[in-house]
């Protein structure tokens, strides 16, 4: 594959197009096609398992941020240095509080590792799934993945944050005609028991944003305070974008496909107006 | 992974292509699979499946309108991919890779033609009343059974969005029922990947007075029923968005904590823990204060 376009670019373009709902299966399928590119894909693409693969996996085992133990257990599994582990423990506690305040449930994990040049990097994972208590209630899931790198410059630290949010919402609808239900005009009303419908609406989305910021560092835990503020700000921005801009846009596009109002009537009205204007001018 | 397996995976990607983006997906898949010959041969069944499932439209040879390539329009008893355009009473061979229609032949209409033509004309007038860029076909399955398909596509790649509305109805004048399915897919991908996918199945009974009236009168009443159901389906989408925005979004992640204030991170950290870390090592802090 030395010539032609970069397969990684093609994979990333594909991930931008295929339904976010199937991202896990699709990325797995892609990794099977090109195992050589798995690491590279993991680095830039998104998905909890994949970042977890990279950052808390050793062989077939995963390290728990709470106990620092690998499951299944392994000897000499990769782990942060003792001083970084201390910070990792504190970060997990802080983001657990963050998770409780914003998500009121779900799971969070923070993994830290040392960088070659002396700084360190980390990933903050947050996951929440909502299972409906009745068939009419919507279900959904939220995954956010925040990868950051930091380098200290005197009393300041420079942070580079890449945040990805993946979201899915599903609503089921069931309707049946009864005495009170009205279908448009009275003459279009169908006879009792003459109509029923059932539907499902799935809204899914993924987005990635980056930011670079400098913050003061007074003590080791300043890094948690600083990344905490950055991640809180970022999640707030992305949540608003998804709800206000992205989801609203998808609804508008439906109205670009089909109009509830009669387009033919509107056309006739415009024609009539034109004629009237012409008539007055004469 | 063998080449056949890779083509199989590629086929699954093709079938998930958003509206109007099958060529983009094909281009990506070509680079990834890296076996043009194998892909070209193995991908055809997936392309055929995609075209039929997605109500792919094609300009009818020698006509000024489009028709929908559908399993219902497939001309039976032939090996080739020959499809009927009932409106012009011609059939043509459809190439699922190039999306071209060739070799037109005229076809003899069935005895259901007067009723079919009435439904078709009602369908076209409904189309111009409610669809911005729609294509509709009406096919006679028997003298009393008809299939209606409607598709409306809008592709706007320069503004990163695309949408497709598909409706399928099976009208049975004998059992006086309309079985319908509406599918809507929207993709918005400006600095993100957001997709809406809806499906709605409906079952509507046709009043006895309607099915026994003249073809023209029954056709327009049948489309009044379809119009009411589609408008209801579209309007109910607003309710669903409201529901999802109000309940589900908040249920997953609040806009702000219950206190309506952002987090005080210094407090959250706990001063004790911070102090302990500072005392044990200064490697990550800049200077001791």
Protein model, in words:
- The complex is a heterodimer of chains A (282) and B (289).
- Chain A is α+β, with helices and mostly antiparallel strands and 282 residues long.
- Chain A is built from 7 helices and 8 strands, in the order ααααβββαβββββαα.
- Chain A has helices at residues 7-17, 23-33, 38-44, 48-56, 82-103, 222-257, 263-281, and strands at 57-58, 61-63, 70-71, 107-114, 120-130, 139-153, 156-176, 195-216.
- Chain A has a 5-stranded antiparallel β-sheet, sandwiched between helices. In chain A, strands 1-2-3 form a 3-stranded antiparallel β-sheet.
- The model of chain A is unreliable at 34-51 and 178-193 (pLDDT under 50).
- With 289 residues, chain B is of the alpha+beta class.
- Chain B is 40% helix and 27% strand.
- In chain B, the strands form 3 sheets. Chain B has a 5-stranded antiparallel β-sheet with strand order 6-7-8-9-10. A 3-stranded antiparallel β-sheet of chain B has the order 3-4-5, with no helix packed on it.
- At the A-B interface, α1, α2, α5, β5 and β6 of A face α1, α2, α5, β7 and β8 of B.
């Amino acid at each position: 594959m030395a010539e032609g376009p970069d397969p990684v670019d093609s994979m990333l373009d594909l991930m931008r197009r295929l339904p976010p709902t199937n991202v896990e299966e699709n990325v797995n399928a892609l990794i099977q096609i090109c195992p050589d590119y798995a690491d590279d894909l993991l680095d830039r693409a998104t998905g909890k398992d994949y970042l977890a693969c990279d950052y808390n996996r050793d062989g077939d085992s995963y390290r728990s941020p709470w106990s620092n133990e690998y499951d299944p257990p392994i000897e000499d599994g990769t782990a942060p240095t003792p001083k970084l582990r201390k910070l990792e423990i504190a970060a997990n506690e802080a983001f657990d509080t963050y998770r409780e305040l914003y998500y009121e449930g779900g799971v969070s994990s923070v993994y830290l590792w040392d960088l070659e040049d002396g700084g360190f990097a980390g990933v903050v994972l947050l996951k929440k799934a909502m299972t409906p208590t009745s068939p009419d209630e919507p279900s959904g899931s939220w995954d956010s993945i925040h990868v950051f790198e930091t380098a200290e410059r005197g009393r300041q630290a420079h942070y580079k944050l890449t945040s990805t949010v993946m979201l899915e919402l599903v609503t089921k609808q069931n309707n049946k005609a009864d005495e009170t239900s009205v279908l448009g005009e009275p003459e279009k009303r169908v006879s009792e028991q003459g109509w029923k419908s059932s539907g499902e609406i799935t809204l899914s989305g993924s987005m990635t944003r980056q930011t670079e910021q400098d913050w003061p560092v007074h003590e080791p835990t300043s890094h948690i305070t600083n990344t905490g503020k950055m991640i809180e700000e970022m999640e707030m921005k992305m949540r608003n974008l998804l709800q206000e801009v992205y989801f609203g846009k998808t609804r508008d596009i439906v109205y670009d496909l089909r109009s509830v109002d009669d387009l033919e009537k509107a056309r006739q009205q415009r024609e009539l107006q034109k004629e009237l204007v012409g008539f007055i001018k004469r | 992974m063998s080449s056949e397996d890779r083509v199989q995976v590629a086929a699954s990607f093709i079938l998930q292509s958003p509206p109007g983006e099958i060529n983009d997906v094909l281009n990506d898949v070509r680079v990834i699979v890296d076996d043009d010959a194998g892909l070209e041969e193995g991908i055809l069944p997936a392309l055929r499946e995609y075209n039929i499932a997605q109500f792919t439209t094609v300009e009818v040879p020698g006509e000024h309108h489009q028709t929908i390539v559908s399993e219902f329009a497939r001309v039976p008893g032939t090996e080739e991919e020959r499809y009927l355009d009932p409106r012009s009473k011609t059939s043509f061979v459809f190439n699922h890779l190039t999306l071209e229609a060739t070799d037109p032949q005229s076809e003899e209409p069935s005895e259901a033609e007067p009723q079919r033509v009435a439904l078709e004309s009602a369908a076209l007038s409904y189309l111009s009343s409610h669809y911005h860029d729609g294509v509709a076909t009406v096919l006679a399955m028997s003298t009393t059974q008809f299939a209606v398909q409607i598709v409306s596509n809008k592709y706007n790649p320069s503004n990163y969005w695309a949408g497709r509305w598909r409706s399928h109805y099976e009208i049975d004048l004998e059992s006086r029922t309309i079985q319908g399915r509406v599918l809507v897919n929207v993709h918005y991908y400006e600095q993100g990947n957001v997709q809406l996918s809806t499906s709605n199945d409906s079952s509507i009974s046709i009043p006895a007075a309607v099915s026994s009236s003249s073809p023209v009168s029954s056709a327009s009443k049948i489309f009044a029923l379809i119009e009411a159901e589609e408008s209801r389906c579209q309007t109910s989408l607003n309710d669903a968005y409201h529901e999802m925005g109000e309940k589900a979004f908040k249920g997953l992640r609040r806009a702000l904590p219950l206190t309506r204030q952002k987090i005080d991170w210094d407090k959250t950290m706990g001063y004790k823990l911070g102090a302990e870390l500072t005392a044990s090592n200064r490697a990550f802090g800049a200077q001791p204060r």
